[in-house]
Design brief:
It is a single chain. The chain is built from 13 helices and no strands. The chain is mainly alpha-helical. Helix 2 (30-39) packs across helix 3. The chain is elongated and about 185 Å long. Iron/sulfur cluster binds at residues 161, 164-165, 200, 204-205, 210, 212, 215, 217-218, 221, 223-224, 227.
């Protein structure tokens, strides 16, 4: 076994697919095998095959299912007819939604709902499958494998992953790709190889932005090592920048807080001066008012004394007049007696 074949074995052991691939079913066509692959993300093969059988009976064609409500699709998958209580189909809702999205993706990419044409031109088919992110390359590779009579399908994404892993060289590979890739695959492991490489492409090895730092193969992948290293440097730079920004932000906040404190201090001082000023003015006014009141009271007292004196003088006058009258009366009386 060559060094590269050993490496492929290690890759196959290291990567655990998220979902199983279906076992091919005689009576299902390619579109239905795609549906089966999607359903296996949620339920086992037997339940998935049963569900597809019920859906076939429940809808006159797949387009009608594509536009149906998710709850209704779930009910049909369970054989509960078109209408069923949400609680009764709750455990199939996610699978039903996923299945409907698969049909939607096929419809958008092919303007139809059948995939038998994949068998006619495998090169064009592999291009199409790579444009179906919901289906993914693991399931898409399975469809290509079926379409090509269970021959190893080699698509551009697979070549990209293998090239980055240092297993093949992309340059000038186009036509003899299967001849170069085929010998690397352990005997009888074609489908697992297609699934695992599809899984790597789906999850980490994007054409433009591979996330090598998360990829389980980053240690042994020459391309990944460099990307992971660049990513580390970039992360360190970002962290350093974040710290600088944080320091700047803290300094700014401190400056602003100091500014606010000084402003509050100035306003408090101003308010204290204003209050003291008002207090002083009030005290001055109170002194003036008290003085005025004292002057007024003294004046009133003087006037009262004058009035009292006047009244006493008047009284004395009246008394004197009375006395003079009595005296005159007595003198008149005396004169009368003499006569
Ligand atoms: S380490 Fe990066 S380049 Fe290598 S296989 Fe993983 S994602 Fe692809």
């Amino acid at each position: 076994m060559s060094k590269k074949s050993d490496q492929v074995v290690k890759v196959l052991e290291k990567i655990k697919p998220r979902w199983p691939l279906p076992s091919p079913v005689e009576e299902l066509n390619l579109l239905e095998h795609g549906m089966l692959a999607v359903l296996l993300r949620h339920i086992d093969q037997k339940k998935a095959v049963d569900a597809i059988g019920r859906l076939r009976k429940g809808y006159p064609d797949w387009n009608e299912m594509r536009v149906a409500q998710v709850q209704e699709v779930a009910a049909q998958m369970l054989g509960l007819g078109r209408r069923a209580a949400r609680d009764d189909v709750a455990h199939y809702l996610v699978a039903a939604r996923d299945l409907r999205e698969f049909l939607q993706e096929v419809y958008q990419k092919t303007h139809g709902l059948e995939l038998e044409f994949l068998r006619e031109d495998l090169t064009a088919s592999s291009k199409l499958v790579q444009q179906m992110p919901h289906t993914g390359l693991a399931a898409g590779g399975f469809l290509l494998w079926l379409a090509g009579n269970r021959q190893l399908p080699v698509h551009a994404a697979m070549v990209r992953v293998l090239d980055r892993l240092g297993l093949v060289s992309r340059a000038g590979l186009a036509k003899k790709a299967r001849d170069v890739v085929g010998p690397l695959v352990p005997d009888g492991d074609d489908l697992r190889f297609v699934q695992i490489v599809g899984e790597i492409a789906d999850r980490w090895c994007d054409a433009r932005k591979p996330t090598c730092w998360d990829c389980p193969l980053r240690e042994e992948c020459p391309f990944g090592k460099k990307v992971a290293q660049d990513h580390k440097v970039q992360m360190e730079r970002q962290e350093a920048q974040r710290k600088r920004d944080e320091t700047k932000r803290l300094a700014f906040e401190k400056k602003e807080a100091e500014k606010r404190r000084k402003e509050q201090e100035r306003l408090a001082k101003k308010a204290a001066i204003e209050t003291a000023k008002q207090e002083k003015a009030r005290a001055r006014q109170a002194g003036i008012d008290a003085k005025k009141r004292a002057i007024e009271e003294a004046k009133q007292k003087r006037l009262a004394e004058i009035a009292k004196k006047k009244a006493l003088a008047e009284k004395a006058k009246v008394e004197a007049a009375k006395k003079a009258a009595l005296k005159a009366k007595a003198a008149a009386k005396k004169a009368k007696k003499k006569r």
